[in-house]
Design goal:
By secondary structure, the protein is mainly alpha-helical. The chain is about 70% helix and about 0% strand.
Length: about 160
């Protein structure tokens, strides 16, 4: 059975959020895949495995965005794939990842709020779900950094679902 596409009114700004989200998720896929390969080259097999697992998670996020866009009758378009962030140490890779995840969290918080304001429940629910996943992932990166460099102030306090930028 072929998937059916429905033509629904879609706010242009929501479409912009979806396109930017797809670009950021695919950029994250590229980044984590590259970093997993670097970690392997450095002999950090556990870190390489963690980066590969993140690659799969981000790819699943991109797939959910593509599915949602298709269900809205919109052709997916990731227009701005970023270069992968590389560094000379695991700590520096993770700091780059923390910056990317912070940007993704900020985008999903904005997109979710906007969709709620315009009454787009379907897109809002997608962004809210992705936001929860990315906040969790940002906390994992912070925890990993803490393992490497000792305790520090968490960017994502427990129980806080949204970042304030």
């Amino acid at each position: 059975m072929k998937p059916t596409l429905r033509q629904a009114p879609l706010h242009p700004r929501t479409l912009g959020y979806l396109g930017r989200a797809l670009s950021l998720e695919l950029s994250a896929v590229q980044q984590y895949l590259t970093q997993g390969t670097l970690a392997d080259a450095w002999g950090l097999t556990e870190a390489a495995a963690r980066f590969r697992a993140e690659t799969v998670e981000e790819l699943r996020h991109a797939e959910r965005i593509v599915q949602h866009m298709l269900s809205l009758g919109v052709a997916p378009n990731a227009s701005a794939l970023r270069p992968a962030a590389v560094a000379r140490s695991l700590r520096d890779l993770l700091l780059q990842d923390a910056r990317l995840e912070s940007e993704i969290v900020g985008l999903y918080a904005q997109a979710s709020d906007f969709c709620q304001r315009v009454g787009d429940q379907g897109s809002g629910a997608l962004f809210e779900s992705l936001l929860a996943d990315e906040v969790h992932h940002a906390r994992e990166i912070d925890d990993w950094l803490a393992e490497l460099e000792g305790p520090r102030q968490p960017r994502w306090p427990a129980g806080e679902a949204r970042a304030h930028f």
